[in-house]
Amino acid sequence: MDDDKGNAARTARWEERMEVPLGIASGLFLAGYAVHVLARQPSGVVDVSLIVVFASWALFLVDYAVRWRLSGLGLSFVHKHLLDTVVVVLPLLRPVRIVKVYDRQLRRHGEPRLSLYGRVIVYSGLSTSLLGFTGALAVYQQERGAPGTTMKTFGDAVWWACATLTTVGYGDVTPVTPGGRTIAVGMMACGLALLGAVTGSFSSWMIEIFSRGEGQKPPEDTKPPGS
Amino acid sequence: MDDDKGNAARTARWEERMEVPLGIASGLFLAGYAVHVLARQPSGVVDVSLIVVFASWALFLVDYAVRWRLSGLGLSFVHKHLLDTVVVVLPLLRPVRIVKVYDRQLRRHGEPRLSLYGRVIVYSGLSTSLLGFTGALAVYQQERGAPGTTMKTFGDAVWWACATLTTVGYGDVTPVTPGGRTIAVGMMACGLALLGAVTGSFSSWMIEIFSRGEGQKPPEDTKPPGS
Amino acid sequence: MDDDKGNAARTARWEERMEVPLGIASGLFLAGYAVHVLARQPSGVVDVSLIVVFASWALFLVDYAVRWRLSGLGLSFVHKHLLDTVVVVLPLLRPVRIVKVYDRQLRRHGEPRLSLYGRVIVYSGLSTSLLGFTGALAVYQQERGAPGTTMKTFGDAVWWACATLTTVGYGDVTPVTPGGRTIAVGMMACGLALLGAVTGSFSSWMIEIFSRGEGQKPPEDTKPPGS
Amino acid sequence: MDDDKGNAARTARWEERMEVPLGIASGLFLAGYAVHVLARQPSGVVDVSLIVVFASWALFLVDYAVRWRLSGLGLSFVHKHLLDTVVVVLPLLRPVRIVKVYDRQLRRHGEPRLSLYGRVIVYSGLSTSLLGFTGALAVYQQERGAPGTTMKTFGDAVWWACATLTTVGYGDVTPVTPGGRTIAVGMMACGLALLGAVTGSFSSWMIEIFSRGEGQKPPEDTKPPGS
């Protein structure tokens, strides 16, 4: 019992200390990966970007290992912290962490606190954007140069990602490789969940606005969440 | 404190006085823009429409400046009134203001007040329609004459806008230019949120109808909101 | 006041007396319209179907006129009973009335009453099916033989209607004529609303099932609504 | 009354005893069907798979017959247990039963009980996956070798199923045969309902997380349901 408390305290301290480095590493990972995918010719830039990517990944692994150690748990740690495990294996999902850092920044600067709905919208909106950008990068890496592909430029990939995450799905640009399609299915699942949160919150917020002050205040004065 | 109250009162008076002119300017802006986009040959009509567009835009700028002045805030005004700032920069979103004027008209004419759900549905339905029409105009302006475009007539653009805002997304008509696609992504995001409000309200209203009077009144007698 | 009550009573009596004839007329209208659209060669069958269609329409007009008369209202009747007015002008929406007759039948036969969610699901499920079938007929009538159409058989039209009402929107079959597209936009709007009710109720029902008896009864014993 | 109780008790005992055999039979049915569809050349494997499929089906029929007998009901059993009847006629829907067995397994192993939302998400997520896999198999069986089909491999069928169940609907792969399209319409309907449950629960869960402990615990510590 006492040991558990000590472990929890040490874990909390570790997490606090690592927050900024991990946030920076997430950003560097994403930037490095983007450079690696988008740079056409092999050059020094690509080499550096690859080093950045692997260094960030190593940092994530170290963080995971330390927290496993501190938790005092055996193999059940993998099961209990399934999300963290997934993020270590699929580090492209990591940058979503940036959203949390942004959230904390807002609090520190004494920003007028967003309403509940506003926070959900900002949180899931940012996650969706990051997920879309990351997914577009990953799918583009698979599709580039594949025979019969309709995804010729990175712009096409971003356009495809937007049409997918909003479930519009025009089908003018679609992945054709097994790798690209697998990532696409993951994006559909995550994107739907996040988008469901955004639209659900927006409609709740709108109903709240209308049910509150009828005629007291013109609705326009109530700024939408996130503005 | 006292100064703040005075500012608020002066702002309220200004907003009241400007409501009708700004509403008319919004309508003129949309009409002028539509004429500018849809008129084929350069002619006197197009010149007049351009003048109307810029005059309305100037009025929006003046309104924004006056309210900034009256608010007594510095640069934080831009941040606090982010929606207004966006509307000044992207005046195509302005016509959504017409919805508010329509709402106020309904009240003045002693119309039997709509239920909460009814108002949300009317409000977001109108906004969606306006957004669709405006978006179709803006995308059509980008796409017209682009090589390889499938959007040949303005009818195609409206058809595309409807399929996009409802997230059906057939893909028989799609934008191909970067400009058109950027506007399209904005439409997807806004449209989804608005549509989420419509469907959410409709389903809440339907459940309310069914949970109320079981057998007292046939459901058909309860007219749907907005009818 | 007294006159109003008399009017309401007379209206109620009229509606009760007309329920069965109007229900039958709705069914005949739909059947006649289907025969008219689907029969290839002009023949006696088509002539009879056209007569049935116009006779049903005439009955709807008579019903509307009588209720207008009984209501004792002037032109405001058109505005107050907007839904009825729409149904008279667009009689294809009429068959949705069959759902109400079905609902009443269920009650009379002492059927174990459906739960609230079950009724919403059955009600909107039936409406969606009818709307889809009617919409497929109407769009097929517009598209048949149009140059460049992808809707070659009525089966294609039904397939397109299903993909549209569920917002999947493959785009392998799409209307190309202005008339067909206008009907399609109406279907998207109605279908979305109805489908929102179905999914909203289903998810509410599922959450209710899970939050109720945890372990008391296996969830499978609770039959889904509408079964 | 007493007889009813006896029937219910006997039915419960039968269901308990049959749970594991029926679960195994469901799995075997799906596996056998998959082998039957995916094996290219007729061979001994296909013969065995067909025997497995029909044996499982026979077991379902026996179970249905015994429960009908035990219920002491006449023809009304078919109506009252409509879902079971559907499953007997369309045994491909049977494997969804595996989800229930999985749920019971979790309970027996003293797993930390999932929250309400978590259970709904896991339950409908698993059902959706199974439905998608089964639907892809069934549609692929119809489409394989059809003239003009775009569904050339089983991978295409799975990709199509994912795009359909999430309502993205690219349309790069679509069924063209009447049989395939009929199954597809069923998948759209079921998938929408299940997905509605997933997104509805996820957004409810997200809102709950945010409305709870503001600042007490960083949101990241709260693992998402199902992790």
TrEMBL record, chains A, B, C, D:
Location of the protein in the cell: Membrane
Domain Potassium channel: 142-207
Membrane-topology annotation of the record: Multi-pass membrane protein
GO biological process: action potential
Record's keyword annotation contains Flavoprotein: no
GO MF annotations in UniProt: voltage-gated potassium channel activity
InterPro entries: K_chnl_dom (IPR013099), VG_K_chnl (IPR028325)
Sections of the chain in a coiled coil: none
Classification via Gene3D superfamilies: 1.10.287.70, 1.20.5.110
Transmembrane regions: 20-38, 45-62, 120-140, 183-207
Name the record gives this protein: Ion transporter
Main location, first listed in the record: membrane
Pfam families: Ion_trans_2 (PF07885)
Keywords: Ion channel, Ion transport, Membrane, Transmembrane, Transmembrane helix, Transport
